[in-house]
Design a protein that fits this description.
about 5% strand; Arc Repressor Mutant, subunit A; about 50% helix; mainly alpha; 6 helices
Length: about 140
């Protein structure tokens, strides 16, 4: 959702876009978008202005927005959410599952961060333009490059 929102803002360049418009494209509630924009603003990806002509725009050029930074700004980095209640320690699975999932999560986080660190918002916008023009294949293995 964050990259979708940022790509929309990139498309409209310096024109402030309101949360209702963004929510319509993302197919979610404007409140959800405003919460997301708040997270993105804390990391200096977007700036917002209030008022009748207000809205949000990118704080920097798309090529200067690394997807790893976006990921870190809005995700908790946990693909495997561990339960609030500890599993049954009398069970072999319950006793060891958190350690195993934690190890897998570390491997996943490293792979995700390595890949996202090589991509910018400009790469996403370029790829969207390629799909729009029919130039790209759905199974491109070049990871946006």
């Amino acid at each position: 959702m964050a990259v979708h929102t940022l790509a929309l803002l990139a498309r409209y360049e310096d024109k402030p876009i309101n949360s209702e418009f963004l929510a319509c494209s993302v197919k979610t509630n404007a409140v959800v978008i405003r919460r997301l924009l708040s997270e993105l603003a804390r990391s200096n990806f977007v700036v917002s202005q209030a008022g009748a002509n207000g809205g949000t725009r990118l704080a920097r050029e798309p090529k200067k927005i690394c997807l790893l930074g976006v990921y870190r700004a809005v995700e908790n980095g946990q693909v495997f959410a561990l339960r609030r209640n500890a599993p049954d320690k009398k069970c072999d699975i319950g006793r060891n599952i958190e350690a195993v999932l934690g190890e897998i999560q570390t491997c996943l986080d490293t792979a995700v961060e390595d890949a996202l660190g090589k991509m910018s918002l400009a790469d996403v916008v370029r790829k969207i333009d390629e799909y729009k023009a029919g130039e790209s294949k759905a199974k491109n293995k070049d990871c946006l490059k």
